[in-house]
């Protein structure tokens, strides 16, 4: 069956659980392609070049933007983040679904991009703001000042929740993962319904005509 890869956007305030959920979703379905972003933010301990991010300088980042290599990009928490375009286009051609961990600005730009794929957007909320702060601290990778900055920006990120197709409250991790799997399964069926399924039904009917 001919199909175009889905573009799946995952956004949330920092610390709500996007990266954890994305990792679990890809363990469940290794055919999913994670869009590895470029960023000017320094690596955290344990982050791997080319796996979590492409760590780069502001100059090199701007050059990629000028050369049209970014599908979208934005400044978040004082650093530049962007999704390289070429791997997304290749995945779409191969009918593979791409998962984006981007902020609301990236979500808007991917929806508006001329890639023409089936876009599914999911916003992840924390159960409460004190729990969000607890998770940022428990992650143990950011300084107090960085955590304070992220908490301050969380309201602005959350204010964009209504732009998303699905809004999940990530209280119990297993339950949220189950909801994500269900969304992905259903949206793939919708994509197939709009895609090559017509030809399959025609073939089915002709076989025993
Ligand atoms: N627009 C855009 N946002 C991104 C991209 N990559 C990451 N982000 C967002 O940047 C924010 C900060 O990411 P990061 O520094 O990894 O912190 P974390 O979300 O707390 O793990 C998050 O909201 C990400 O979703 C990207 O390529 N484009
Ligand atoms: N449902 C949950 N319940 C408790 N802790 C969680 C849950 N989801 C994620 N976490 C923890 O919260 C912290 C932040 O999660 P992370 O995936 O890094 O968030 P984000 O990518 O949105 O910034 C991590 O330490 C993660 O293990």
UniProtKB/TrEMBL annotation:
Q: Which InterPro entries match?
A: GK/Ca_channel_bsu (IPR008145), Guanylate_kin-like_dom (IPR008144), Guanylate_kinase (IPR017665), Guanylate_kinase_CS (IPR020590), P-loop_NTPase (IPR027417)
Residues at which ATP binds: 12-19
Quote the subcellular location field of this record: Cytoplasm
Record has Nucleotide-binding as a keyword? yes
GO cellular component terms, semicolon-separated: cytosol
* SMART domains to which the protein is assigned, alphabetical: GuKc
Keywords in alphabetical order: ATP-binding, Cytoplasm, Kinase, Nucleotide-binding, Transferase
Reaction it catalyzes? GMP + ATP = GDP + ADP
- Chief subcellular site? cytoplasm
EC number(s) given by UniProt: 2.7.4.8
Known PANTHER family for this protein? Answer: GUANYLATE KINASE, GUANYLATE KINASE-RELATED
Q: Which family does it belong to?
A: Belongs to the guanylate kinase family.
| The protein's role, per its UniProt record | Essential for recycling GMP and indirectly, cGMP.
Instruction: Tell me the protein's name.
Output: Guanylate kinase
Q: Which organism is it from?
A: Paracoccus lichenicola
Lineage, highest ranks first: Bacteria, Pseudomonadati, Pseudomonadota, Alphaproteobacteria, Rhodobacterales
